[in-house]
């Protein structure tokens, strides 16, 4: 009888007690829609949603709701991990491959458990949904080992530009955690080793040139250059692009102010 009483407080009719677990038609108290799960390469964020049902063994509605929220957070963590395992770091190497090393997996798990909660939805049956997100740069910092020496950036030229837009349309480029820009000989001219902080994303990915040029990331006056071919997941820049970079102060690259256009 006690169970029936507080289920009524939560908004579950007594006649539906036998169907609480199956019911999905409840009305949410908070109506903000769940964001799309997976990787947002433009914003540099991994997102997932977790759901939790009320604990019918709880002594009161408040405890049942807290139990649902804990369950939703655990489910969000599992879904983040599932989404992350297939994310490519470099060609032929995914996050799942890197996590085969116990130390790396432990650090990734720790980061995921500290996810940011972007929204919660409370339902009339006592259920809870939690939207979780983790930034990709933080994940990349533990997944991509540092190499030495770092990439040397020219900081002596004229300060003409506020960022870099790489036009890679038509090359079949796909987003990865640690892309590189190369010269014609295959030498890296930009990548994770050029960043002043490893918690900064290497690049954002866009599907339109105009969108990339207007991105806050690259500022008001970005340099737009053309990639001439794809080498694995790395982009080889045209000679003219390399010349422009060599003649300019490109300290903005150390801040990861790079947008790559794939379509």
Overview of this protein structure:
The chain is built from seven helices and 13 strands. It has 263 residues and is of the alpha/beta class. It has two domains: 2-19 and 31-143, no CATH class; 163-261, no CATH class. The strands form three sheets. The protein has a seven-stranded mixed sheet with strand order 9-8-12-11-7-13-10. The longest helix is centred in the first third of the chain and has 25 residues, at 61-85. It is elongated, with a radius of gyration of 23 Å. Residues 1-30 have low confidence and may be disordered.
Number of helices: 7
Q: Give the averaged pLDDT, no decimals.
A: 87
Radius of gyration: 23 Å
Number of strands: 13
The gross shape turns out to be: elongated
* Number of structurally distinct domains: 2
How are the strands of the largest sheet arranged? 9-8-12-11-7-13-10
Low-confidence stretches: 1-30
Distance between the termini: 61 Å
Structural classification:
alpha/beta
| Proportion of beta-strand residues | 15-25%
Give the helix level as a range of percent.
Answer: 25-40%
SSE succession:
HEEHEEHHEEHEEEEHEEHE
Largest sheet: 7 strands, mixed
Keywords: Signal
Signal peptide: 1-18
């Amino acid at each position: 009888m006690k169970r029936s009483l507080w289920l009524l407080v939560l908004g579950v009719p007594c006649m539906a007690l036998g169907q609480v677990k199956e019911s999905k038609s409840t009305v949410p108290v908070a109506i903000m829609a769940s964001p799309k799960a997976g990787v947002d390469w433009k914003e540099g964020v991994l997102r997932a949603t977790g759901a939790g049902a009320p604990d019918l063994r709880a002594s009161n509605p408040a405890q049942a709701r807290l139990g649902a929220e804990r369950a939703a957070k655990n489910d969000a963590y599992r879904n983040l991990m599932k989404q992350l395992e297939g994310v490519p770091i470099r060609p032929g190497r995914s996050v799942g491959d890197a996590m085969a090393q116990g130390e790396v997996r432990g650090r990734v798990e720790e980061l995921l458990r500290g996810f940011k909660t972007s929204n919660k939805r409370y339902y009339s049956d006592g259920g809870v949904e939690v939207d979780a997100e983790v930034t990709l740069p933080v994940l990349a910092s533990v997944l991509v080992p540092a190499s030495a020496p770092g990439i040397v950036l020219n900081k002596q030229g004229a300060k003409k530009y506020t960022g870099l837009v790489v036009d890679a349309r038509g090359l079949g480029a796909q987003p990865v955690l640690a892309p590189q820009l190369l010269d014609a000989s295959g030498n890296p001219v930009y990548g994770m080793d050029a960043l002043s902080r490893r918690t900064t994303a290497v690049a954002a990915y866009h599907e339109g040139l105009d969108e990339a040029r207007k991105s806050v990331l690259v500022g008001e006056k970005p340099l737009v250059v053309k990639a001439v071919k794809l080498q694995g997941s790395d982009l080889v820049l045209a000679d003219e692009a390399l010349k422009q970079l060599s003649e300019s102060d490109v300290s903005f690259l150390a801040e990861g102010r790079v947008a790559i256009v794939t379509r």
